[in-house]
Every structure is written in structure tokens, then in C-alpha cells.
Amino acid sequence: MKLLVSIVCFCFAFLAQAQVKNDDVLFTVDGDPIMSSEFVRVYNKNLDLVKDESQKDIDAYLELFINYQLKVKEARRLGLNEDAKYIREFNNYKKQLIKNYMSDNKVTDVLVREAYERTTNDVKASHILVRIDESVTDDTLAVYNKVLKLRERVINEGFEAVQKEVHDGKSVFAEDLGYFGGFKMVYPFETAAFNTPVGDVSMPFRTRFGYHVVKVFEKRPSLGEATVAHIMVSIKQNDSTVNPEERINQIYKKLQQGEKFESLAKQFSDDKSSSQKGGALAPFTGGQLRAKEFEDVAFSLENKGDMSKPFKTDYGWHIVKLINKKGIQPFEEVKGELENRVKRDSRSELINSALVKKLMAKYKVKENKKEGLAYMETILNEGFFKQSWKTPEDIKDGALITIRDTKISYDDFAGFLMSIQRKYNNRAVDFKSLLNTEYDAFLEQQILKYHEDNLEFENEDFAFVLKEYRDGLLLFDLMEKEVWNAAVKDTVGLKKFFKNNSSNYVWSNRVDAVILSSASKETIEKVKADLQKDIFVETILSTINKDDIHKVISTANTFEEGSQVLPQDFEFKEGVSQIYEHNESYHVILVKKVLPATNKTLDEAKGKVVSDYQNYIEDNWVASLNKRFKVEVDKKALKRVKKQILKN
Q1: Residue 104 has pLDDT above 50, yes or no
Q2: φ and ψ of 229, to 5 deg
Q3: Distance between CA 565 and CA 151 in Å, rounded?
Q4: In the chain, what's the furthest Cα-to-Cα distance?
Q5: Cα 228 to the chain's mean position, in Å?
Q6: Do the bridges between strand 598-599 and strand 631-633 make them parallel or antiparallel, or are there none, so unpaired?
Q7: Alpha-carbon distances, residue 417 vs 397, 421, 546 (angstroms)
Q8: Whether the predicted pLDDT of 23 surpasses 80
Q9: What is the distance in angstroms between the CA of the first residue and the CA of the last residue of the chain?
Q10: Please, are residues 270 and 234 in contact by the beta-carbon 8 Å criterion?
């Protein structure tokens, strides 16, 4: 029995030693502790992002992490954390980050699922709107009744007849809206449209624009997902002789003559990220692309293999080929994106209301509402509706609301009322109704503010992300000051570094050449023969590409050895080349001049030299930080860290 107890105790002791604790200090930088839990979390988070396998080694990663903490320590020593610009940028980020943690998960999940249903379906509808100012909360019955009568007319007379008579584009709007899905309209309108059966007219409802009725004509599944390939000719061309519109039309003629889309994309598309894949793009859904013209054309193609005519976007001229069309994406694939959209949308107000309800219980909020509002009613006057009311100097002391140990005073609520006077300008509203409405808004504001102010101490995930950004932003400012700007401004040091490392910056063999390409070997053979007769390229092209038929396309530039445009076995010599079969086409190359391998000048290699010089400066600087600050690693804590990481 004693042996069993001893074994169990030993096992518990071993497990305790192997498990990283929250108060474990992994190392110190001049006495400042860095916790083991922070290192484990950062290591696990970045593990999949690290491409260099050596950096996945825990000891190697620890060295990087120590260097990171040395830089943060140096930034604080220099007072960068007290810089006004840094503080402003950090606070702006904190405000944005807080939004991701200010939600009720259950309500959010319901809204996200609803958003999925609405983004995967479209509604075709028309509506009638009678405008009314958003701030008007009373005396709206007359407007409601007016819209109710218009609804009856739409049912009896048809939408078009009513539209012609009532639409004035000022106070009354009767509009055809076409098809729309989720997030395309304000949330109350979207809800009314999706909840109204096909063929029906909704009851009047209000949005921030006024009162509406909506007539629903049709509901259908959304467009889904399209996969296309494209050939793009950029508006900006290195070859001044190339007219983008003419070039795309030349390519289109070649397609009509039977040449392969993929081959022409490889040869002539200026979208290098897709050209070597035959122009193929990643799948996309409606509304995902920046270029609406491109999206419209892509979804208009019906059958696999269908091709568009040339069309223009802000990026250049395109020809699109449909590879595949499929239905809507599964919920799990778009859930994250939808959640972000829900939190940015007006439906987030529903999330806030649910969150406030939970927080009131969590923070044990105490209200003095009845007595408090009765008192506030006695100090309001008509000046409130003229934006001239001010908080009385002798306003009552005491707490109107208590959130844990934080007291919200009558003076705080009065200040809130002063800030919203404009909302009630020149309106006569009952003070009791006004105070009840604005008290609820004030209470929600104060509870959410308290939650924001204490989030860093209550939510471990939020605290970690915030610290990451706090330190990362400091590090950015420090690196900009000590490394990046230093390398750019230190022209003497840069020239010296370049001189000492000039062998690292060389041109491969290059040619100043014109590449002439065609899908027909016979045509290229004729082009080659003409070139050998010293006939100008322009003359050859004008002779062969006649009667609106484009058999040959030329590209003039300086090409470096290894360029994807050049055949792999291309021979670097002046004159007319042999005929090459490359990228599923035939080419002959007129080499005007061979530029042999040579060292680059500083101007030619400037970008790479600056980058290398920055790395050189950083290495020396980190070495100096290791001398300035004393780093002590707890070997036992490191052992526990390694066991935990390897166990996972």
C-alpha cells in the first residue's frame, strides 16, 4: 500500500513538473519576467507559419523570441511607448479589437445562420417608401396609415399603377429593386423582404429612412460560385508599341481562329499569377471581386468552355473563359466571414442588447431608476429643445447606477443628455418618455464601457492579442528607427556594403530582343525567312496580320536568362533564332543585342542591396542589445516548456 501511494505521489509530482504553470517565468530581461505560458502560446500560434524548419526547433525559436523581447525592452528604454503617435495608433487598434469580443455568442450564432440563409438566396422585390426623419419617434401614426393605404392599393391595383402615380423621388419613393440577398439592404428591410411570401405585400414597417411596404415577386437561390480563366492585357505596358485594346482584340481573333485559350494565356496574359496556369483563377462568389464588370461577365457565361468577348475593367482588358460553376458554399466555409459582417451590420444592436442583459447580471448592476428619473424630470426645461439646456450647478449628488464598485452619478447622466440635445432640436417631446428612452441608451452605454475598460483583465485571449499588438507596434517603430530608415539614409554605409559584397549582385545573360509568336509553325517559318532578309518587324506584321486576321503577335523587351517567356534551350546570340516550340506555340526571336552576365550597378540592385544591408545592420544591433541587457533563462522552466510542446 505504501509503495502504491509512493508511486502515485511520484507520478503527480512528475506531471506537475512537466506542466507549464501560469506563474512560470521562462526567462528575464534585466530582471523583467517573460512567462512560459506566453512563449508556448506564441510558439504554437506561429508554428504553421514558419517555413524554415530550423525555426521549429524549440531552442532556435527561443533565441528568436529572446531577441524579440530584447527589442521591446530597448523600445521602452528609448521611450517609444510614450510617443503620442504610438499611443494614438495603439488605442485605435484596441477599439477595433474590442469589437470582436463585445458580443453574445448565442445571439451571434443565430444571426450568422440567418445571414447564411439570406446570402445564399435572392429576393426580387419592389417597395414604396414614405420618407420620415430617423429622429422622429412620435406623431408617426399618420405616416403609418398613409403607407397602409398605399399597401391596399398595391394589392388591388398592382404595383406599377401605384408607382406611376405616387413616386416623386422626394418624399415618396416607389422603386423596382431587382434581385438582392443578405447585407444588400438595411437589416429591417432585408428581414421584411425575406419574411414576406412570394406574391404578397408586407405590412408597413420602419427603417431609418421612413415607412415602407415591400412587394415580393420571386425568390431564388443565389448565383453560387464560379471558376474562370482569363487573359488580361494590362493598361500599363513596358512595350510602348503595344496598344492594350488592339492586343486583346488580336488575341480574341486568334481564339476565334481555333488557338488554345490556355496557350495564349501563358504567352500573352499580363496577370503573371495566373498566366502559367493557363489563366485559371481561384473560385469566387458574387460580390467577392473588386471588379464588378469582371464578375458580371463571369456569371453571365452559361456552359463550361464558354468565352466572353474582350471587355475592360480598371485593371486592363480581359477575355474570360468559364471553367466551372457550382452552387452555394457550405456554411462552415463562410461562417467566419459572415460573423464579421454581422458584427459590422446594424443587426449587431441585437447582439449588444443580449450582451448587456448578461453583463447586468454578471456585474450585479444596481439602478436607482424610478427615483432618479423623477428627479431628472424636475431639472429639465424647454431650453433642452433649443440646445440651450445645461446641467444645474447644484445637481443632486449620489449614484444613479452602480456597476460593481463604480458609481455612475446624476451628473454623468446629465452630461449625456446635454450631448444629445441636437437630436431633439425644435421638438416637443414628453419629458417622461424622453428620459425613459435615453436612460436605457445611457445604461447600455455605461455597461458596455465598463466591460471594455475591464476586458483586458477578464479575458485571457483578449489580453494576449492586445499585448502582441502593443509589443509589435513598438517593435515596428523601433525597427523603422534603428534599421529600415538607417539603411536607406546611410548612403555611405550602403555603398561600402555593396562594394564589399558586389559578387552577390549580378545580371544573368540577357538579350534585347523581339519575340514573334504564332500557333502555326508554317507561319513562323515564313516570319523567320522574312527576318533573315532583314525585313522590318512592323512590315512583317502588317503583311501577315491582314484582313482582320491576327496570326502573329510580337513582344519587344530585354529578357534575362531564366525568364518564363524564353524557351529553356534558348541560345543567346545575336540575329534570328531557330524556331522554338514553347508554351504550346511557335516562336522565332530576333536578338538585337546580347548582354552578357555582368555585375549589377548599385542602382540596378538597389532594392536587394538595401534589404541585405538592413539585415546586416539588424544582426549587429541585436548583438549589442545582448550585451546591454542581461538575459537569464530558467533551465527547469524551459524543460517543462519542451515537454508540454512535444506532448501536444
Answers
A1: yes
A2: -115, 150
A3: 65
A4: 104
A5: 23
A6: unpaired
A7: 17, 6, 78
A8: no
A9: 33
A10: yes
Whether the Cβ atoms of residue 221 and residue 208 lie closer than 8 Å to each other:
no
With a cut of 90, say whether residue 50 has pLDDT above it: no
Residue 58's alpha-carbon distances to 267, 322, 637, in angstroms, are: 46, 48, 13
% residues pLDDT > 70 (the chain): 94
DSSP label at residue 307: B
Decide if pLDDT at 239 tops 90: no
DSSP secondary structure letters along 356-381: HHHHHHHTT-EE-HHHHHHHHHHH--
Pair 115, 365: CB distance under 8 Å: no
The pLDDT assigned to 54 comes to 58
**Judging by DSSP bridges, how do beta strands 311-313 and 32-35 pair with one another?**
unpaired
**366-367 and 399-403 as β-strands: parallel, antiparallel, unpaired?**
antiparallel
pTM of the model: 0.53
The whole-angstrom separation of Cα 603 and Cα 605 is: 6
DSSP letters along 23-77, please? T-EEEEETTEEEEHHHHHHHHHHHGGG---GGGGSHHHHHHHHHHHHHHHHHHHH
**All cell numbers assigned to 58:** 524549440
pLDDT category of residue 648 using cuts at 50, 70 and 90: low
| Per-position DSSP letters for 176-188, written without gaps between them | EEEEE-TTSS-HH
Which ranges in the chain are annotated with CATH 3.10.50.40?
Answer: 121-221, 225-327
Q: Considering only the top CATH level, what class is 121-221?
A: alpha beta
E strand residue ranges, 72-209: 121-131, 172-180, 205-207
Sign of CA dihedral 579, 580, 585, 589: negative
**Quick check: 3 pLDDT over 90?**
no
What 3-state class would DSSP assign to 618?
helix
> 506-599 adopts what CATH topology?
Chitinase A; domain 3 (3.10.50)
pLDDT of residue 53 exceeding 70: no
Provide long-range contacts, Cβ within 8 A and 24+ apart, for 404-408: 404/363, 404/364, 404/450, 406/450, 408/446
* DSSP code, position 496: H
CA dihedral 362, 353, 135, 154 (to 10 degrees): -160
Please give the Cα distance from 116 to 133 (Å, whole number): 31
Residue 50 grid coordinates: 514558419
* Fold category of 225-327 in CATH: Chitinase A; domain 3 (3.10.50)
Each residue of 539-594: pLDDT tens digit? 999 999 987 788 999 999 999 998 889 998 999 999 999 999 998 999 999 999 99
* pLDDT at position 18: 47
β-strand partners of 131: 210
